[in-house]
Structures are given as structure tokens and as C-alpha cells.
Design a protein that fits this description.
Number of helices: 17
Shape: globular
Length: about 500
């Protein structure tokens, strides 16, 4: 039997220890309860978490940067945008922007003086610094221009109406051979312009090439000063028969007293020049189904578009010379005076008025409307009297519609004299000079042929048509590559005789 030993004092000590342990445990439980009470809402809703502080924005290394600095935030806080202090550039008035665009277009055509004057005389010049910058740029560019040294070697190219639809023009009827010889297709014309542009050619006005002046000894002619960038070279352009004759655009012959208007039976040419919605001259066309549309169907709108896209292709706003006859009217309008009886006075007056408005529109945009004679006779083969009578008829019936001119494009290219200078005793020259003509252009296959008379200017024109491209491509190498230009829709061989236009 074991012995059990009991100490009263030891029993009381152990009781006191248990008491303090109990109190400590209660305190811990109380603290935990308080902590739980405080943290429980946060545990239940994470959005109540305390956000972390955003980092400092990245400062651009240059104070000129306009990019806003990047701001980094905690993923639990919506991103914040800090806008840096910026200086807002002044807004340029729309009128000033438009003026600068116009000045740029003019300056691209080497007329820096006009462009500078436009800007310096503008009410916005002092408040829009960009205008002064443009003036400085134009002055610098102008200082680089050089005078073209051999203006007498300026070539002159010419065309007839451009073929818009080769299927209709080359359909094998009685006129298709003539179209093949004397006409150029729109695709050929565009390709020619593109290659001439690449070669550095710039279209100039005959008034830039040569001009009339008066001194103590009388009236004389001299070559003008054409300033272009080094490597650029001038050329002249004209178009014959801008009349849209009835045989081309309809059925019948309008040479008599009854006008023939365009219809769906035409041969694939535009039938008149009209004023487009943008205020520029364009062309009206009737397709084989009788639908009437307006657009780039002949030389005027096609060349205008090309110049708008390549303003440095035109020197100081130059456009082509448009030669018109009068025996069926002008520019596609049936304005021959004897048509009035068949048309009625009111309809005829409307036709004449429309032609006048189109003529003015053309001139406003730089085109020169010039004489191609009234009845298209070969001036070199007829009498002095007939030349004078034909010229007078053009002056009396066509000039009141299209305005005065001092330029004549000889019909059929038929000149009134040999290659020698016009003698003062030449009766045809006397008649034409008395009617106000000072510029006389024939047709010549030479690269360039110009003649300066004492009181006139005379030159040869090169026909860029099916005949010349097919039979004499080597004569056109200075202008373009015939093989790459020649329209595959053109029938070959091209006729070389039998058609006259």
C-alpha cells in the first residue's frame, strides 16, 4: 500500500496559478474579439481595402513634348489622369488656311511673285506666322530658278478630239480610218502627259514664249524670259476643232442649215464642253445606250485634272490653245447664225448664251480660245480674197461668242508662205495681220520650229496622233516612248491616206 502525502500550502499555490491563467486567457479572447470586430467588414468587402499610393508620373526628358506623362495606380483603384500644363497653339482661321493652299498651288507653278503678294497682302499675314514662313520658302525657291536659255527650241504639240470609246470610234465605218489617223485616245494622251512630265517638260503659254512690245521704232516681237528649275524645259500645246462636229457625235451632216445634235449613235467622243459643279470646264458625253454623263471625256478636263495633280506641269497657270471653227458652231454648241431659222429664235439664243458662258469659264481658268478659221479651208491653197473672207466671217460670227484672239492655228496645218519669213507684200499675211493676228502656227514634224518676225511670231506644231505614232515613232523619242503609249485597241496598220479632217 502506497503512501499518499498531502501539503496544504502547495495546494493553495496551484489554485492561484490557475486563476491568473484564466484571466490571461480571457484577455486574449477579448483582444481577438475586438480585432475581429474591426477587420470583419474589410474581409467581407475587398473594395474597402486601403489604396496603395500612386507612383510618381514619368516626366518627359524634354519640356517640348506634348505627350501626357504615364501614371501608375493600384489595380483596385480607378486609373487617374494627370494633365500636364500645355500651351495651346492658336487656331488658324479657315480663310487663312484656304489662302495658303491657293498660294502653294500657284507657287508650285513657279509664279512665286504672285503667291508672295497674295500672302503679304492678306489681312491674316501679321497674325499667322506660317504665312511668313511660306514667303521665305517661296523666296528661296525663286532664287534657284534659271532662265531657259533656248526658247527658240520650244516644241509645240497638238491633238484633235480625244477618243473616249475605242469600240465606237474604231467600228469599221466610213469615219473610223480618219479617227485612227488623226485622233488620239484618252489613255494615250494621259500616258504621253505622264512621260513628258517625267522628262521635265512644263506647259507654257505662247505669251510667255514670245511677246509684242513697242519702242521708238515701232512694234516688234521678242522672246520672253521663262524661269524654271534647272533641267526643266518648256513646251506649247494646242487642240484643233474643239467643235464636236455632227458626224462625230450624231447622225448627219451639220454643214448645211439644219443643226445636228448629239445622240447615242455617236462615235465615242464627248459632244460638248460644259461647266462642272466645281466651276471648272468639263465635258458631256452620251454613251451607246443614250445615257448622258459629265466627266473627263476630252482634252480639257483630262489635262485640267493632270495639272491639278501635278501643278508644276503648268508654268504660271498656262493651259492649251483651243482652236475653233464656226461652220457648225463652237465648243459643241450649234451657234452657226443660219441655224436660227431651224431652231427658233429662243432656242438659238439659249444655245449662244450657253456657249458664251462656257467660253468665259475656259478663259477664266487659263485656256486660250483661238481661231482655226471659219470653214476649215487650207489657207495655203486658196486665194488672198478667200482667206480674207473666211477670216472676216470668223471675226463676225465666232469672235462675239468666244472673244477676241491674236492667235491662228492654220486649218490642215496649211501655211500661207514658205519657211522664209513672211514678206510685207504677202496678201494673206496682210489680211490676217489686219484682223489682229500676231501668232501663226502651222503643222511641222520637226522637233521644234519657231520663227521670230519683226512684228509676229510663227511656229510649227507636231501632231501626236495615230499616223505619227505608227509611221514615225523615232520623231517622238524626245517626248515619250511610243511603244508603251500606243493604245492596243487601235487597229493596225494605221491608214496613211484617204481621209481628210
Amino acid at each position: 500500500m502506497s503512501e499518499y502525502y498531502f501539503d496544504e500550502n502547495d495546494s493553495r499555490g496551484k489554485s492561484r496559478n490557475k486563476y491568473w491563467i484564466l484571466i490571461a486567457l480571457l484577455v486574449v479572447i477579448l483582444i481577438c474579439a475586438i480585432v475581429v470586430a474591426i477587420m470583419l467588414p474589410t474581409w467581407l468587402d475587398p473594395q474597402m481595402d486601403v489604396p496603395s499610393q500612386p507612383t510618381q508620373p514619368t516626366i518627359p526628358s524634354s519640356g517640348t513634348s506634348t505627350t501626357a506623362p504615364t501614371v501608375t495606380t493600384s489595380p483596385t483603384v480607378p486609373s487617374q489622369t494627370i494633365q500636364p500644363t500645355q500651351t495651346t497653339a492658336p487656331v488658324i482661321p479657315a480663310e487663312a488656311v484656304s489662302l495658303m493652299e491657293k498660294a502653294d498651288f500657284i507657287a508650285a507653278g513657279y509664279d512665286y511673285e504672285t503667291a508672295i503678294t497674295m500672302l503679304e497682302e492678306s489681312e491674316y499675314f501679321d497674325e499667322v506666322p506660317q504665312m511668313a514662313n511660306l514667303v521665305s520658302a517661296y523666296q528661296a525657291a525663286a532664287s534657284q530658278l534659271v532662265r531657259y536659255p533656248t526658247p527658240e527650241k520650244t516644241p509645240h504639240i497638238f491633238f484633235h478630239s480625244l477618243i473616249a470609246d475605242t469600240d465606237r470610234a474604231f467600228d469599221g465605218d466610213g469615219d473610223s480610218g480618219g479617227y485612227n489617223m488623226y485622233m488620239t485616245t484618252i489613255s494615250e494622251f494621259i500616258a504621253i502627259m505622264e512621260q513628258m512630265y517625267e522628262k521635265g517638260y512644263v506647259l507654257v503659254s505662247p505669251y510667255d514664249l514670245a511677246y509684242e512690245y513697242t519702242d521708238d521704232t515701232g512694234t516688234h516681237f521678242k522672246y520672253g524670259d521663262i524661269y524654271l528649275p534647272k533641267g526643266k524645259k518648256p513646251f506649247l500645246m494646242s487642240q484643233d476643232d474643239v467643235n464636236y462636229y455632227s458626224y462625230m457625235v450624231g447622225t448627219g451632216d451639220g454643214k448645211n442649215e439644219t443643226p445636228i445634235f448629239a445622240d447615242a449613235s455617236g462615235d465615242g467622243f464627248a459632244h460638248k464642253i460644259v461647266i462642272g459643279e466645281d466651276g471648272y470646264p468639263t465635258c458631256e458625253y452620251i454613251d451607246k445606250d443614250g445615257n448622258v454623263t459629265t466627266g473627263d471625256y476630252d482634252l480639257v478636263p483630262v489635262l485640267e485634272r493632270f495639272i491639278q495633280e501635278h501643278p508644276d506641269f503648268s508654268y504660271r497657270g498656262a493651259r492649251a490653245m483651243l482652236g475653233v471653227t464656226g461652220y457648225e458652231g463652237v465648243l459643241g454648241y450649234r451657234t452657226k447664225p443660219s441655224y436660227e431659222t431651224a431652231m427658233g429664235s429662243e432656242a438659238y439664243a439659249a444655245e449662244v448664251q450657253a456657249a458664251k458662258e462656257v467660253a468665259q469659264c475656259l478663259k477664266d481658268h487659263g485656256w486660250l480660245i483661238v481661231s482655226h478659221s471659219y470653214g476649215h479651208p487650207a489657207y495655203g491653197n486658196i486665194s488672198d480674197y478667200r482667206v480674207e473672207a473666211d477670216s472676216d466671217r470668223w471675226e463676225n460670227t465666232v469672235q462675239p461668242i468666244v472673244g477676241d484672239t491674236d492667235i491662228i492655228l492654220y486649218p490642215h496645218g496649211s501655211d500661207i508662205h514658205t519657211w522664209h519669213k513672211y514678206p510685207a507684200t504677202n496678201g494673206k499675211f496682210q489680211a490676217l495681220y489686219a484682223d489682229g493676228y500676231r501668232y501663226f502656227f502651222n503643222v511641222d514634224s520637226s522637233v521644234h520650229w519657231n520663227q521670230m518676225g519683226d512684228n509676229y511670231f510663227r511656229g510649227g506644231r507636231r501632231n501626236l496622233d495615230g499616223f505619227r505614232m505608227y509611221y514615225n515613232p523615232e520623231l517622238l523619242e524626245d517626248l515619250f516612248d511610243v511603244e508603251s503609249v500606243f493604245d492596243k485597241a487601235r487597229p493596225t496598220p494605221v491608214p496613211n491616206s484617204g481621209w481628210g479632217m
